[in-house]
Amino acid sequence: MFRSRAKTEKAPTDQVTADLSQQTRNPEAPKGRPTPKRSVAQSQRRRAATTPVNRKEAMKRQREARRADLAKQREALASGDERYLPARDKGPVRRFARDFVDSRFCVAEFFLPLAVIILVLSMIRVGQLQNIALLIWLGVIVMIVVDSIGLAFRLKKQLRERFPDEPKRGAIAYALMRTLQMRRLRLPKPQVKRGERP
């Protein structure tokens, strides 16, 4: 007798809780947690949108980001835009070293064309031509060494005067490597004309 009564009393409370859960929440009622700031909510949404679903998606996004970075670097190498240049070309010291080299004629920039001519002359089976090719080769090497030493001393002096507090490590080697490239093929592209003061 008591059991049946307990069952009948319990049933209506179950119905009431089920009805309450189905009802929509009153907008004025507290929701039990603070409302996030707009900036926090936006960053969470952005993070959810940018978070890759799986490893394949992550790799794809990484490749796309790398491609975009390389495209920016290529544009920067052509235009001389400091922001996107590779680390080895960045900074005022490296920029001055590039301009210093680009503003003058260097014997070393003609090394590759001269090497091809000397190679062709040395392949011809005439003793006199081979001797001439050897002499030209020695003369070119001596001129390149002398010109490079002179350029290194002048550049070192200029760097000490203009950038006393900047780190200058590797700038001379960077400039000398640039002299070995033909002006037209140099990257970043020359920003000064020959004879112009850097």
Write the layout of secondary structure elements.
Elements: H1 2-22, H2 38-50, H3 55-79, H4 92-102, H5 111-123, H6 127-162, H7 171-179
Can you walk through the features of this model?
Mean pLDDT is 81; it is low at 6-12 and 16-21. The protein has a domain at 105-184. The protein has helices at 2-22, 38-50, 55-79, 92-102, 111-123, 127-162, 171-179. Helix content is 65%, strand content 0%.
> In total, how many beta strands?
0
Helix content: 55-70%
| Helix and strand run | HHHHHHH
Kindly, what is the distance between the CA atoms of the first and last residues, rounded to a whole number of angstroms? 107 Å
- Average residue-wise pLDDT: 81
Instruction: Please mark out the parts with pLDDT under 50 across 5 or more consecutive residues, or reply none.
Output: 6-12, 16-21
Rg on CA atoms, Å? 37 Å
Globally, the shape reads elongated
Class per helix and strand makeup:
mainly alpha
Q: How large a portion of the residues is in β-strands, by DSSP E?
A: under 5%
The major pleated sheet works out as:
none
Helical segment tally? 7
Describe, in short, the structure shown:
This protein is mainly α. It has helices at residues 2-22, 38-50, 55-79, 92-102, 111-123, 127-162, 171-179. It has 7 helices and no strands.
Annotation keywords:
mainly alpha; 198 residues
